[in-house]
What does this fold into?
Amino acid sequence: MKKNILVISLATLILTGCAKSKNDQKSEKKELQKVEMQEEHSMGTLPVEKRIAFMSGHVEVGLALYRAGKPDQAAQHLMHPVSEMHQAERAGIDALGFNAAVFKAVSKAMDEGKPASEIEPMLTEAEENITLLQKNAGGDLSEIILFLMETVVEEYSAGVRDGKIVESGEYQDAFGFSVIALKISKRMEGDKAAQLMKELIKLVDMWPAGAPLADSIPEPVKNVVEQTRTIIKNL
It folds into this structure.
């Protein structure tokens, strides 16, 4: 009798565990879908100038990695402007002069294994198109840089942990956003403009010269965060 009770109890525990496991999986799936929907909604409701700044950061680091001879690392970044996953980000940018064809051509060249030097005019065209979008989108430059600094902290903190790169894509994205912020600062005027530019150069210099490769030795997170705070104070 005791043996039968024990068997029944074990069976109950196993069934309960399975049910719990399935419920946990469903819960995790729902939570993931919720997060994805929130991210999509958030990007879709951002002002166009901030969406373009965000896209620009991906393109910037993608170009740097491609020119550094790392097309495998560049691909995810350079595909960003034409990826189906990021449609909300591109809402309304065609009217500002977005040239999707050039980014598709760059992606095709990468897939075909062409070196960056062979398609440099195409890369320059992609770069110029992103700059055109930034200018046509307008917006408050200080607000855009503030947005980029907040994004740098978020991405870098996700990409670097305990002195090591744990997510190379995020580590690289943070570099791209920093470079775009620096380029935007060159269009600013006023008493703080020169100091702002100097502080942004210091931030960009926290990544290796050339390109932020996946096997780089990263700057401590706290140093990057402190530098973004200094930049924000100069806005």
